[in-house]
Queue: 3 jobs
Job 1
Amino acid sequence: MTTIDTQPSVLLTGIDEFVEARRAEPAWRRAVRTRALDRYREEGLPTTRDEEWLYTPITAIVDANPPLATGGQATPADIAPFRFDDFHGPQVVFVDGRFAPDLSDLRELPAGARLATIAQLLDAGDPALEAHFGRAIQVRQRGFTALNEAWNTDGAVIFVDDDVEVTTPVHVIYYSTGAGASYPRTLIVVGRHARIPVVETFAGAERRYFVNAVTELVADEGGHVDHYKVQRESVAAHHVASMHLHLAATADVATHNITLGGALTRNDINATLAGEGIECTVNGLYLVDGDRLVDNHTAIDHASPRCHSFEIYKGVLNDRGRGVFNGKIFVRQDAQKTDAKQTNQVLLLSDDATINTKPQLEIFADDVKCTHGATVGQLSDEALFYLRARGIPKQDARDLLVHAFAEDIVDRIRIEPVRHALERVLLARLPIRE
């Protein structure tokens, strides 16, 4: 078995040639790659000896040691299942981490809003990319953040100027062909009192591959962002991702994470509430069956007074599926009048399914309202009896209760084409047979 200690170059196959081929990049980007490689070689990848990865072994990723995916091809038919019907905004597609213009639908955004790719902005020497790249990252995933910074070449960039309102959502699709590893990155920067909805979809061919994704979201004063991440990777894929939110005063940002695929999924969300009067919503739904593992780690840092955070994560676990939820809320000493609510609810549909849940509060202020809790259980016998007493067959009653549990999160999605698509997926995925 491969270990980090015996193979410190894991996930670095071909990195020297890769870096040499990018000598024409701006000096700042080359410096980021160099620092990232130095950091990665120093800290390595996490193991189950690390508290934050106690229940999430990455042995399968290390043993596979996938090289960078290059030359993968996808067709419109490959992408079609992951588009949304009646979607009126731009849909930009990346294949194995590289922009695929022939598969994208680049509809125009209003004046003052810009959709571009990292590669395009690097080629143009755009100073805005340098100014914001990495700005939102306050907490790094051990090893994986550095790998993304070292290997990344492309991804979606969205800039919205002050006071610009974008009503049609932007859909970013990252599709993997199964050719190896990809390192996509999304950067969303929203100005003062600007607004935009954004959807990220991660999907791929039914093969084994590795995705290491980073999303940064920066919202200036009064900025408003509705963000949705839909993870529909192959059930053989490994998906490790981190999202970093940096919010200014009176910003209103919501992110919803829907995890449906992946043999191993690790989602980290880190939010810094850096100004007064912020509202931050972090919701999630994860479905786990077979021998799959989904690990959600969230951290909301209340660094300023009078901010509100709301968090609901729900999991449905079947077969031998495993789930992990670790949710942290930090309230700093000056963050008086904080209102923070966190809930983790898990439905176990099998005696062999397991969940490790750890909601946490660290409060250093005294004038706050903070609650957190976790509930783990099976379907309610009383609710089943109630439905069966009204003539509903037992299996249909079970399915109704499971759907109602999951739909609580899906119903919070404000973009109708996305909500309707996920409702159809749930209808296909959630009937549970005894």
Job 2
Amino acid sequence: MYTNNDKFDGEGSGSLDSKLTIFQATCYNLRLFKGELLRAFPTMLKGLARDYFYAYNLNTQTYNKAVSHLRGLFKGLKF
């Protein structure tokens, strides 16, 4: 259901905001509630972004905090 092109890796796969738009639309279509977004969030990540998500235990944060952490990390990085 989720293609590799739709995933965010933090290394040139597209902006986090554009990938979040795809992710949130997919979750809406699947009728996931807002409280369930964090559980599904890792499916939109790959590579460095996914490694960071698990290394820093972002799965224990709220969805908004996890997004904020990723945004802060990858905001100024250029690969």
Job 3
Amino acid sequence: MLTYDLEITLSGFSGEIAGAHIHAAPARANGGVIIDPLDGGKAFGMVGSLTTYSVCGEPFPPENLAS
């Protein structure tokens, strides 16, 4: 099983982030959602004026890799 580390930092958002996800697909194509930061009770947080999200060592099944 592969794992991944992901850190997202945003600025300028005035409201709650209700949806965010990453798709697996070749360039200019739309594939299925493979990473959903809001799934499983995880959430974006605030650090000063920045909106942040980070995870380390999350499982990533190899079949999710786009070809």
